Every structure is written in C-alpha cells, then in structure tokens.
Amino acid sequence: MEFVTEKNRIFCAEGGETLAEVTFPDAGDRTVNIDHTYVSEKLRGQGVAGRLMKLTADELRRTGRRAVLTCSYAQKWWDAHEEEADLLIR
Description:
It is a single chain. By secondary structure, the chain is an alpha+beta fold. It is 28% helix and 34% strand. The protein has a single domain (4-87), classed as Aminopeptidase (3-Layer(aba) Sandwich). It is built from 2 helices and 7 strands. Strand 2 and strand 3 (17-23) form a beta hairpin. The N and C termini lie far apart (32 Å).
C-alpha cells in the first residue's frame, strides 16, 4: 500500500477510489488542524489509520508545523502516543 503526501493531505487510492486519508488544512502560522481521518471498510482493522497518523506526525516534523486536533480519531491516537505531544497546540 502506497501513501501519497500532498499539501495538507495524506492518502492511499486505488482505481480512482480513496481507500484512506487524513486531512490537515492550515489553521494559522505554521499550524494545521487535523480534522478528518477516513479508512475504507476494505482496510479497517489493519492499522491503516494509525499509519496515517504516524505519517502525519512525520510530515509535521519535516515541515516544522504543529497541529490542533478536531478529528476524534486523531485525538485518540495522540493521547496514546505521548512521544508526539510536542507537535500539538493544546
């Protein structure tokens, strides 16, 4: 499974169908809002959402940005991954 990183979005698609994605639009100076995580039923239960969050954390570090979380899954994931807490604005 190949993930593609675009500006403020990481996703996986196949045959024109989005199978998984996370979106994080700009929310201010060097800040994004992680507002949406989606995983197709075809991929649920395989850790795909967690991979999307880790890729997002890596992208934030790479680009020097921080995040606010309005996506319920992102909030849950970040609560379980204290090592990434420095990327958040709370």
